[in-house]
């Protein structure tokens, strides 16, 4: 039998990745095994050991897929600088569509694995630090525009925004019936509106005229 | 050999539960196996099958331990009704001590497992609904005391408080260096202070004199 043409090899690799993703979306990292991926493809585990010589290789590929899917997901065009951009970035994280829900479910599932491994814990910690950093310039713009108090701590607000949206993701994943799209968006709008008020980081009256 | 006295049996059961807890704190549910618990105890897996005839029985016991530890954890005495009680309840959730960190780490780890099982997903969803409900009466007291606007949506604020604190738990678990105790408390105080301001749930000017 002739070896498969390069195009076939690429197509098969894509099939494998899609099966890994479907297993993750249904069963999480706790259910990610060569056997489960093989069953999802109707293939043999022997075929899969060609792609993944170890469980570790399978998990590494799964984490790569998650990064790629997250980086490549569609994003909203912010309607304006400052807080509207912060709102759009937070909306891009929430599980508002089936694809967003699957991605979030896989991220939450990955936390068990990542917290059990020092290297993965540090990588994930750095990843969230970078995520918080993407919010800061927009919070600084909001401060410059007077949308939030002039002495607001934008680093702390960025941390608060990421904390709030991740916690809302968890609530929505466990209870989609109580957290449909409109409830998630209303909660997010309320959170963003409160950024405009004085927190503990602003001295009393310092940002008010009276 | 005589069978063990009832007291020995209870002591051994406690040893097993403590070993399960240590494995969970170090490796999460993804690392919870009879073999790992046996190694933690210096016992045989055969001895453990007496307590846990299946992986499912081990996981069920682990989830029970998590519930018991959470229910029995020490709590702060709130200094006053209303928002100070809300603040104290949120502080009781944050990973501020090693014991609180272990408990939170095990909860976050359990999400992978729970999201992969419809029954566990529904149980966890109901559990978080009850947690949100514990905040509502205190938010209603805060509203009565004028600490938050008179038309604030206490149900939505309870959901926001749980979302914020769970997301902060996740950030702190992955990055304890950037989220030491004082940073977590400062973020919480800022969040609670913002509850006093007008959100989107309050009509503009409706809670102000001017």
What does this structure look like?
2 copies of one chain form a homodimer. Chain A is an all-alpha fold and 210 residues long. Chain A folds into 2 domains: 7-70, Arc Repressor Mutant, subunit A; 76-195, Tetracycline Repressor, domain 2. Chain A is 69% helix and 0% strand. Chain A is built from 9 helices and no strands. Chain A has helices at residues 6-27, 34-41, 45-51, 55-72, 83-91, 98-115, 118-144, 154-174, 181-195. In chain A, helix 1 (6-27) packs across helix 4 and helix 8 runs antiparallel to helix 9. Chain A is elongated and about 60 Å long. At the A-B interface, helix 6, helix 7, helix 8 and helix 9 of A face helix 6, helix 7, helix 8 and helix 9 of B. Chains A, B: Residues 33-52 bind DNA. Chains A, B: Keywords: DNA-binding, Repressor, Transcription, Transcription regulation. Chains A, B: Residues 10-70 form the HTH tetR-type domain. Chains A, B: This is TetR family transcriptional regulator. Chains A, B: GO terms for molecular function: DNA-binding transcription factor activity; transcription cis-regulatory region binding.
List the helices and strands and how they pair.
The structure is a homodimer of 210-residue chains.
Chain A: H1 6-27, H2 34-41, H3 45-51, H4 55-72, H5 83-91, H6 98-115, H7 118-144, H8 154-174, H9 181-195
Helix pairs in contact in A: 1-2, 1-4, 2-3, 4-6, 5-7, 5-9, 7-8, 8-9
The gist of it:
Two copies of one chain form a homodimer. With 210 residues, the first copy, chain A, is an all-alpha fold.
Short descriptors:
Arc Repressor Mutant, subunit A; disordered C terminus; Tetracycline Repressor, domain 2; homodimer; mainly alpha; 9 helices; 210 residues
């Amino acid at each position: 039998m002739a070896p498969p043409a390069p195009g076939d090899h690429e197509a098969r690799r894509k099939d494998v990745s899609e099966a890994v993703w479907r297993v993750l979306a249904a069963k999480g990292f706790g259910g990610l095994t060569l056997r489960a991926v093989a069953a999802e493809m109707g293939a043999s585990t022997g075929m899969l050991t060609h792609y993944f010589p170890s469980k570790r290789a399978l998990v590494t590929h799964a984490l790569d897929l998650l990064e790629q899917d997250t980086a490549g997901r569609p994003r909203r065009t912010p309607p304006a600088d400052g807080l509207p951009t912060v709102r759009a970035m937070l909306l891009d994280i929430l599980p508002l569509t089936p694809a967003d829900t699957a991605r979030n479910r896989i991220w939450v599932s990955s936390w068990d694995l990542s917290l059990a491994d020092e290297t993965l814990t540090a990588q994930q910690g750095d990843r969230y630090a970078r995520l918080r950093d993407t919010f800061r310039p927009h919070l600084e713009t909001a401060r410059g525009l007077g949308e939030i108090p002039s002495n607001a701590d934008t680093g702390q607000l960025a941390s608060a925004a990421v904390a709030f949206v991740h916690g809302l993701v968890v609530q929505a994943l466990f209870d989609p019936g109580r957290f449909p799209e409109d409830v998630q968006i209303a909660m997010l709008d309320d959170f963003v509106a409160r950024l405009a008020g004085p927190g503990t980081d602003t001295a009393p009256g310092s940002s008010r005229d009276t």
